[in-house]
Amino acid sequence: MKNNLFTYTLRIADDSLILGQRLSEWCGHGPIIEEDIALTNIALDLIGQATSLLEYAAVAENKGRSADDLAFLRFENQYFNTQLVEQKNGDFAVTIVRQWIFDTFRLPFYEALQHSSDKQLAAIAEKSLKETKYHWKHSSEWIIRMGDGTEESNKRVNDALILLWKFSDELFYMDDVDKELISQGIAVDLETLRPAFNERIHYVLQQATLQLPDSKWKLSGGRQGRHTEHFGHLIAEMQYMQRAYPNMEW
Amino acid sequence: MVNETTIWQYLEEVPDPEVPVLSVIDLGIVRSVKVLSDKEVEITITPTYSGCPAMNYIEKNIREVLGEKGIETIHIQTVLSPAWTTDWMSEAGKEKLLAYGIAPPVNEVDKLVLFGDSPIVKCPQCSSENTRMLSQFGSTACKALYQCNDCLEPFDYFKCLR
Fold it and tell me: What mean pLDDT, rounded, does chain B reach?
């Protein structure tokens, strides 16, 4: 049976969960200790947001599944995150570009969602927005440093843009789930976020002496549960404990 | 006879697990207290950061402290709105932080201004204002890392969240 609120909340939750999981892979591997701590702090915020969202999704679903069940016991095609957030960490430039595209989307998204007619989604957005501002500042400043840095750092960040920009459009994906919830004042009409998103993207790129890739190629499918080859490996690691020791508790 | 005032007083004894000089009251994360009977209370708390791993411990600490006071049934619920900001922290709490060696939250800068000035934070050791931010992400979600340019001591800054 169709449950729009559940699907909508799960999609937002999965973006946070999967990006948080990816960032946590940097723990102990950061290029410098401050960045190791920064990336894992951001991971923690995202996993915290995912927890609130998954708890609410579990309530919306009302089938007895918990937030942990949703996080750890779904199959690959039952996750609805965008393909952007599951992309591998690559080098530091790839991680930062992925984060920057995501943060630049999340800022106007949470700004809008905090006015949702759904009180819990609005509360989660209000809370998360404060954290997202720190994330955006961090990733944007690195884009500028690397783009306007050395020849090598400029090349790395430019390569990362070419690699990842094609996944950015999926952040704006909407279907009937969104449309029905928009009419109830619950969901955000993502088309309305494009001007704010584009403005911030271009502002930072200009400071960074970078340009968007020429290619208009767009990839999507994550919102329907179709993922890139990297995703299976990610959830294999993320789910290991629950799969190996069912019902274990920390 | 247990009333709301007694429960608020009891909660003064519940420490924050990461910054043990602060009580949950100093931190400003207890939103309301309701006494249902002499043995049963309802406490509403709010997290500082979404992913704050201390929240589970804080719940546990609340149960422990109130349990020792003879409260048998403790309902704890978490609310997210209005979102916690550092403005909820008490003045007494800010003084305790400083004495503990953590600079308390001060003025905020606009986080949407890139490479803008970082807030001027006084060194908790020598009180110099000649300090610099090393990283806006520190040892916990709520802190940034600073260093004093005069006494050279690195220190935590409880960052402003608004």
Answer: 91
Give me the DSSP letters along A77-104: GG----HHHHS---SHHHHHHHHHHHHH
Each residue's pLDDT tens digit, B65-119? 999 999 999 999 999 999 999 999 999 999 999 999 999 998 777 778 888 877 8
CA A90, A95, A96, A100 torsion: positive or negative?
A: positive
Cβ neighbours of B134 in A, within 8 Å: 34
Model confidence over A218-247: pLDDT tens digits?
999 999 999 999 999 999 999 999 999 999
Q: A119: nearest CA in chain B? A: B81
In the sheet that B102-103 helps form, which strands lie side by side, from edge to edge?
B102-103, B154-158, B143-148, B131-135
Q: How far is B125 from chain A (nearest CA, A)?
A: 22
CB contact under 8 A, B80 and A138: no
**Min Cα–Cα distance to chain B from A123, Å:** 5
Kindly state the tokens that stand for A52.
């609130």
User: A208 to chain B nearest CA, in Å?
Assistant: 12
Are A134 and B134 an interchain contact pair (Cβ–Cβ within 8 Å)?
Answer: no
Tens of pLDDT, residues B35-66: 999 999 999 999 988 888 888 889 999 999 99
Here the ipTM equals 0.88
A234: left (phi over 0), alpha (psi -120 to 50) or beta: alpha
Residues of A in contact with B135 (CB under 8 A): 34, 37-38
* pTM across the whole model: 0.94
Q: What percent of chain B has pLDDT over 90?
A: 68
Q: Would you say B139 and A28 are in contact if contact means Cβ atoms under 8 Å apart?
A: no
Q: Residue A109's CB: how many other CB atoms inside 10 A? A: 24
DSSP A137: H
Tell the burial category of A101 from Cβ atoms under 10 Å away from its Cβ (0-12, 13-18, 19+). Answer: buried
Chain mean pLDDT for chain A: 96
> DSSP for B62-115?
HHHHHHHTT--EEEEEE--SSPP-GGGS-HHHHHHHHHHTEEPP-----TTSTT
Name the CATH superfamily, with its identifier, for domain A4-244: Ferritin, core subunit, four-helix bundle (1.20.1260.10)
Closest CA to A89 of A144, A23, A38: A23
Contact partners, residue A46, CB within 8 Å, separation at least 6: A16, A17, A19, A20, A23, B51
pLDDT of residue B140 exceeding 90: no
